[in-house]
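Q&A log
Question type: sequence-to-structure
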Amino acid sequence: MMEEDQLTRDVERLRQSLPQLPEPVVKPPFIVVSGLPGTGKSYLCHKLAERMPLVILESDALRKLLFPSPTYTPKESSRLFQACHCLIEELLRRGTPLILDATNLEERHRERLYHIAEQIGAKLILVWVKAPPEVVHQRLEERSKEAIREDDSEADWEVHQRMKPKVQRIGRNYIAVDTSKDISPAIDKILREINR
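Response status: OK
Response body:
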């Protein structure tokens, strides 16, 4: 377990980075967006946030706040996600609509998120983002050449390939989105799910 004051400092640092929070709601939606690097998770999250006031917790950006030169070690990831989980819990208790944008490839990592949502009574919506390998490869190639990046991910095709064997099926109902196609219907579906 991480030192208590380290965790408190980490959560505070992440909290400080957030934009103005949207109005609280009674049963806040908690959208967990998972998928391999380059599949379009951040793109989908931003398109969703254009349609509904949501706070996006993007793991790559939050990692760089805590670790300006990230190493992506298990220890670093553990510290990052402990702080993220505390912040998620805090925001959901406040009624803040929320999206977590992270790879979340393994079910054991998602289990903790399911538990938080159930404990607080948030409306959990799971989204799996995918795209054909050739599309992902091209995106990651282009991303590596961009001088100004649209997201904070440093993952390239090699990282994508290395992470692929870790993918585990989501053990609950989820919405699958192929970002190589028009994502409007998927966004409409997620919004309907939120408003149900």
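Response note: The chain has one domain: 4-13+29-195.
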